Amino acid sequence: MEYIQVILAFAAAIVAIVGTTWDKTQTGARKLTTPGRFTLALVVFSLIYSGVSTYQQREQKQTEELDKKKIDKIVSTEIDRSLISLLEPFKSLYGEYKGIGYVPEKEITIEMMLDESALDAAQHTCLALRPKTFDTFPDSGTWNDIFRANISSGLNRVDRLVDRYGIKMNADMLDALHDLQANGYFSGYARPRVVHEGTIEKTKGSLPPCVIGQAIGSHKEYLHMLNRIMHLNHVDTLVR
Question: Where are the transmembrane segments (predicted)?
């Protein structure tokens, strides 16, 4: 379709070159010869087509920009919701060892949780135990259950988002989300829990009772991964 205007202009030029478009011996409209009238018709049609085509292209561009903004907002909102689920257990754990009411959950930032003392306390928390400073209704179970439920919920939302809009996302955000998809699922490793007189509580033939489950084996790595996504979610364009 974009070549029609060029073809019309070329045809008009050929007609004008081959035929005589203007007869000086005639008066008024009769000065236009048959080739001249044909050339004029081609030029007028070309102008009309050019105007309509330009209008359609502008409308299409505006529609695409509007759709892009809508998708950008959807992607940003879904990422925010995913981050809420993914960060919730870490924030709850932060409040656990800092003391209830120390910092409202909405005011707990990733930077606060990345503090060395905070990381050390979180990394040494026995996730096989239940929270001590708060209760949940319905019962959320142990820290292990809390982490697993929230991380699974957040990653399920990310999976759906990438499946639907991944092809439209900018490369940096897509790379960060793929990193989360590949490395962000809940995993566990054994860590002994030291009890009175430095002895280790252990059942014969089994792992120590305290199994700390962490994504990628480290709170620090996981929080850095989420922090990257959070910062990328505030760039001007999330959608290509």
Answer: 6-22, 34-52
* ∠ CA 209-112-216, rounded to 5°: 45
pTM assigned to the model: 0.68
Q: 3-state class of 188 per DSSP? A: strand
| Residue 240 forms part of a structural domain | no
pLDDT of residue 81: 95
> Has residue 139 got a pLDDT over 90?
no
Q: How many domains does the chain have?
A: 1
| Distance, CA of 22 to CA of 25 (rounded, Å) | 9
Q: Which residues form the domain of 17?
A: 4-232
- Asked if pLDDT for residue 5 goes beyond 70, the answer is no
The greatest distance separating any two alpha carbons of the chain, rounded to the nearest whole angstrom, comes to: 122
Main-chain phi, psi angles of 101, to 5 degrees:
80, 0
For residue 115, give the DSSP letter: S
Answer yes or no: is 197 within a domain.
yes
pLDDT at position 109:
92
User: How far is the C-alpha of 125 from the C-alpha of 119, rounded, in Å?
Assistant: 10
Q: Examine the pLDDT at 187 and tell me if it is beyond 70.
A: no
